[in-house]
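Friendly challenge for the regulars: who can give me the structure tokens for this chain first? No prize, just bragging rights.
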Amino acid sequence: MGRPGVMESRARRRGHRSRSRLVRALFNIAGAVALGLGLVGIFLPLLPTTPFVLLAAACFARGSERFHQWLLANRTFGPMVYEWERHRSLPYRTKVTAIVLMSLTMAVSIVFFVQPLWLKIALALFGVALALWMYRIPSRDRPTRPSS
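First reply, four minutes later:
Bragging rights claimed.
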């Protein structure tokens, strides 16, 4: 897996603000841009909201404790960020909603807006790969199948 010392140092670094004011400012700018893209992604489904919000949280954790806490306290994004930071998982409903919306918008784009066949195939393969990757992210609250 990895050497214990390397894993421990990564765990210690995660979430700790940088000592450099410049680095903190850059993390805050990157976090604001990522959050902005995530918010745009709510209305433009081709932009994935979840990864951008998680990226914003990671940047804010290193740049500004205040912004990071604000994002954690957010009614909409807070539970998802908390679940990712604590358990490296996504809520099942968030994951399924993201996959469905992404699949629908990809399908509409492929059918109505993309002309070259090679590009349609490439977009379809990219969409399937992205959906599989997202589906493989663990969900602690995944519903269990009833046993028959």
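The two ends are 37 Å apart (CA to CA). The longest helix spans residues 21-43. Your move, everyone else.
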